[in-house]
From TrEMBL, chain A:
Membrane topology term: Multi-pass membrane protein
Keyword line: Acyltransferase, Lipoprotein, Membrane, Palmitate, Transferase, Transmembrane, Transmembrane helix
GO cellular component labels: endoplasmic reticulum; Golgi apparatus
Presence of keyword Membrane: yes
Residue segments, region Disordered: 293-399
InterPro entries cross-referenced by the UniProt entry: Palmitoyltrfase_DHHC (IPR001594), PFA4/ZDH16/20/ERF2-like (IPR039859)
GO MF terms held by the record: protein-cysteine S-palmitoyltransferase activity
GO BP annotations, alphabetical order: protein targeting to membrane
Coiled-coil region: none
Organism classification: Eukaryota, Metazoa, Spiralia, Lophotrochozoa, Platyhelminthes
Protein name per UniProt: Palmitoyltransferase
Automatic annotation (TrEMBL), chain B:
Keyword Membrane listed: yes
Pfam families: Erf4
Family: Belongs to the ERF4 family.
Topological relation to the membrane, as annotated: Peripheral membrane protein
Entries under InterPro entries matching the protein: Golgin_A_7/ERF4, Ras_palmitoyltransferase
Keyword Membrane among record annotations: yes
Recorded GO CC terms: endoplasmic reticulum membrane; palmitoyltransferase complex
Keywords, alphabetical: Endoplasmic reticulum, Membrane
Organism of derivation: Macrostomum lignano
Primary location: endoplasmic reticulum
Organism lineage string: Eukaryota, Metazoa, Spiralia, Lophotrochozoa, Platyhelminthes
Protein name in the entry: Ras modification protein ERF4
Length: 399, 165
């Protein structure tokens, strides 16, 4: 069984709980965030809720409790989720790619050559330049970016948030936004009800000072909530705008889809409708962590899908779990059934499975060539034997 | 091994400096080994099929038939295999009403639902795993090849290991 990618992780994030939790290295500001939320909530529950349950309704602290739990769920999801880290390429992949992008030998007359580590890709009528990440040894997907704090490439990289103690990327953006939205609502709720509490007490005692003596924390909680609202709500509003345009913070800062900077630029990921964009970002399909993508590896044999009947494609494609494939277009299904036919032909014909029977000569040549080239007792490639011309920011597993 | 590689470095190929191959010249001439394969520890070669970004961020792999597989499996079989895998992966990334409902419901439960069920994407990747295992059993292993589950390679490449006879 191959090792899960998180065991070979070489970036600077922390990985815990058997690959399920991924956090940044420096968590100090996250503890501050968590502390502020917990302490303010504790003071609110201890002081204000006591009075409000009696003077207004027990629903007030109940709603506050629900919101508090929701905020913490979203915060921990954001902090501990893999943001969409793209696992580093294996040494063989790196060799394969670096061979392709080998810089050309220097021209004697110094002719200009484009940078070989860029590759052009056309998506929706717009040219994207894919970069080869030398640290992660992979072609960075469009919209991915390398986070220097965490030293890894993150898909649909938004930003690295120290308050949350993690990068915000494709996988945890929705949790981040939900955290901001729910925290804004919660801050407003706390501020309103702590001020209401002071007002009710002041009215009961006819003296503001006595009210404050009775519930001293209320004013503190109200102040902290008030100052938090500006930043949290502002950030939440900014992210609503970004989501409606289907642009990440990183792309916004770089002006990748900025029409003012480049009038010809189009955003091929924009669905045209702000609502549709928001829905896809917040409620669209979520990719599992590529660092820990197969926690089911042990019960692969006890799969919960239908067992294969006959033919390779037929068993899986027609008996799907969620039934989504039933909604596929007809031409997709036709393609698949023709593919199944080809595959069953391929599997059935040639019991000896030498599909290349007529071309046996050439395969023989290949295997003979291989035998010549490969010395007996192949030495295992180790990091120390690599002599790349590129600097490798890669720690050997042995270290 | 490093000395051998340096001595035989007829071209500036990084691949040779990192491999234990005795001669790079034979690599260049032999069409089955020139170019994109790497020697692994046990004398195996690997063919990598990269991601195909021509249709946007849709998760799909290129169906271009690598020359190193000529004679091992027919091109139609290879294209069918990659197309089938692409179909599942593309459907995994597509937002369907079921996926939206699942996400909204998860949000309402404070994302605690994800502790209990597999997401649509996870189910699709499990499907790909089963499909890859089946392909290996029926199509690839009989031809001395092995397809590596793309999940084990971070969905970056489809890796086909050419097993040494």
């Amino acid at each position: 069984m191959p090792e899960p990618p998180w065991r070979e992780y070489r970036g600077r994030s922390r990985i815990a709980c058997g690959g399920r939790c991924v956090m940044a290295r420096n968590m100090a500001i996250f503890y501050l965030t968590l502390g502020l939320i917990i302490i303010c909530s504790a003071l609110f529950f201890a002081f204000d809720c006591r009075f409000l349950a009696a003077s207004l309704s027990p629903a007030v602290p109940a709603a506050a409790a629900v919101q508090f739990v929701f905020v913490l769920c979203c915060l921990f999801r954001t902090t501990c989720s893999d943001p969409g880290i793209v696992p580093r390429g294996t040494p063989e992949e790196a060799a394969w790619i670096e061979e392709e992008i080998e810089p050309p030998k220097a021209e004697p007359h110094g002719a200009y050559r484009p940078q070989p580590r860029l590759k052009d890709v056309v998506i929706g009528g717009r040219v994207f330049k894919l970069k080869y990440c030398y640290t992660c040894k992979l072609w960075r997907p469009p919209r991915a970016s390398h986070c220097s704090s965490c030293d890894n490439c993150v898909d649909r990289f938004d930003h690295h948030c120290p308050w949350v103690g993690n990068c915000v990327g494709r996988r945890n953006y929705r949790y981040f936004f939900m955290f901001l939205a729910s925290l804004s609502v919660y801050c407003v709720y706390i501020m309103v009800f702590s001020i209401a509490n002071i007002a009710i007490l002041a009215k009961a005692k006819d003296n503001l000072f006595d009210a404050l003596k009775e519930s001293p924390a209320s004013i503190l909680v109200a102040l902290v909530a008030f100052f938090s609202i500006w930043s949290v709500m502002g950030l939440a509003g900014f992210h609503v705008l970004l989501m409606c345009r289907e642009v990440s913070t990183n792309e916004d800062i770089k002006g990748v889809f900025n029409k003012k900077r480049n009038p010809d630029c189009i955003n091929p990921f924009d669905r045209g409708d702000g609502c549709a964009n928001c829905c896809y970002v917040l409620f669209g399909p979520t990719q599992p962590s590529l660092l820990n993508v197969r926690p089911w590896r042990d019960d692969e044999n006890n799969s919960d899908g239908e067992p294969y009947a006959d033919g390779v494609g037929a068993g899986v494609i027609s008996n799907t779990d969620g039934g989504e494939f039933d909604d596929q277009e007809d031409n997709g299904a036709r393609e698949l059934s023709s593919a199944e036919g080809l595959l069953s032909n391929g599997a059935g014909a040639g019991g000896g499975r030498r599909r290349g029977e007529p071309q046996y000569g050439s395969t023989e040549t290949a295997s003979v060539a291989q035998a010549e080239e490969l010395p007996i007792g192949q030495v295992r490639i180790t990091k120390s034997e690599r002599s790349d011309s590129r600097p490798v920011n890669w720690e050997s597993p042995e270290l | 091994a490093a000395k051998l590689a340096a001595g035989n470095n007829s071209s500036n190929r990084i691949i040779n400096s990192s491999s234990n191959m005795s001669s790079s010249a034979s690599l260049d001439k032999n069409p089955f080994t020139a170019g994109t394969t790497t020697v692994g520890a046990t004398g195996t070669r690997k063919v990598f099929i990269p991601r195909d970004f021509t249709n946007g961020l849709e998760l799909r792999f290129s169906t271009a038939f690598p020359v190193q597989l000529q004679g091992r499996i027919p091109e139609e079989t290879f294209v069918a295999v990659v197309t089938n895998i692409n179909e599942i992966l593309t459907a995994a990334e597509r937002g369907s009403p079921a996926v939206y409902m699942e996400s909204i419901f998860a949000c309402l439960t404070g994302y605690l639902l994800y502790l209990c069920i597999d997401t649509h994407y996870e189910k699709s990747l499990k499907q790909v795993s089963r499909l890859v295992a089946e392909y290996n059993r029926t199509t690839f292993e009989p031809n001395r090849l092995m397809l590596v589950d793309p999940s084990d390679r971070g969905l970056r490449v489809l890796e086909i290991v050419v097993l040494n006879d």
